[in-house]
């Protein structure tokens, strides 16, 4: 059952359960008139004033029944043929995913676009930083379209270039810039894929690198081979969980609050630091708790708990498996015996896994229905609007990363692609870190 149907049933009192806000049942179009991320998990986060807003789209899309929108999307796609590729992130609603040529995680999708060389337009049903990454990796003549410009990412928005530049100036003033006896510079910047293109470019310019949730450990190893410490942004949880799993003490991971001098730390704390963690988080993954895991274990003895590393450390520690969206999907796909899985990630993905693998019992750890607010912004009405415009030769909602930013951001992305996990004793070279992220094992 799609999230929209679930929300409708709960809102009308026809199904048991709760949603995090009754506004989820309001028409999508209403969300774009309110300043904020909209209803869902990040609705209480502060939206930067510079965030793009989506204008009102024509009534013919706002008033069209769902069946008509689906027909119009299919017709436009058939007319455009190979000239367009539609990408759908795992967290998108089913009504959008059904039109996607590829379904996958953010980096798989950015690469999937490259497998369609005839595509003049890449319609990215995901969030803003994903469309930017696709634009960086795509050919110059390929146009990248985000169907709703307000589909940002509240976590990515928690680190902006000015605050990161200011933090960098403070840290380099404290640490200096001279390498140690092993040639390691004082600090290396590492940005999570979930960040604006100008932050990826910042890393490219300053000897840094990008990571995804599937290769964060390899990327941190890469960084520690070249630097004494790391400044990790924007997600504190991915940074902390990854560094802790590598054996780094949490005492040596101070948090950098961009609103405070020294990030809220003393010089001594910063000098002791191995990983300085930016004060960012994902409001979807912050909802998962150890109590929910304990309840799942009580109610479903033998349950396998899988969570995303954007969850808080205590949740990751209490889970059986922690890993990226791709790892979550692969773990479920690999289970040969009927298994009960409690999953701590976005609800659209969990519900889709439950539908795809009926031999297993699969449920979301969070009993409250609360999708990612920004992924939720994309609705078939927007998809029909941008696709029909393409048929007329018009490109709407184009995401363009300036050339200078692209050059530096590509440096940081290419470092990630070249980073290799350290082989274990007696093991063959396991290949580049980004192997899982560069596969095209997305559903056609
Ligand atoms: P992926 O990089 O696995 O697609 O995850 C993106 C995301 O937004 C997780 O919250
Ligand atoms: Fe951003 Fe979290 Fe939504 Fe992912 S789930 S797009 S990190 S707000």
Automatic annotation (TrEMBL):
Function: Catalyzes the condensation of iminoaspartate with dihydroxyacetone phosphate to form quinolinate.
Region named Disordered: 422-444
Binding residues for iminosuccinate: 89, 106, 192-194, 213, 308-310, 325
Organism: Curtobacterium herbarum
Chain positions recorded as [4Fe-4S] cluster binding sites: 153, 282, 372
The protein's required cofactors: [4Fe-4S] cluster
UniProt EC number: 2.5.1.72
Pfam families: NadA
Cofactor: how and how many bound: Binds 1 [4Fe-4S] cluster per subunit.
Pathway, per record: Cofactor biosynthesis; NAD(+) biosynthesis; quinolinate from iminoaspartate: step 1/1
Database matches in Gene3D superfamilies: NadA-like
Record bears the keyword Disulfide bond: no
Top EC category: transferase
PANTHER family: QUINOLINATE SYNTHASE, CHLOROPLASTIC, QUINOLINATE SYNTHETASE A
Composition-biased stretches (Low complexity): 433-444
Name the UniProt record assigns to this protein: Quinolinate synthase
Keywords (A to Z) from UniProt: 4Fe-4S, Cytoplasm, Iron, Iron-sulfur, Metal-binding, Pyridine nucleotide biosynthesis, Transferase
InterPro entries listed in its UniProt record: NadA, NadA_sf, Quinolinate_synth_A_type3
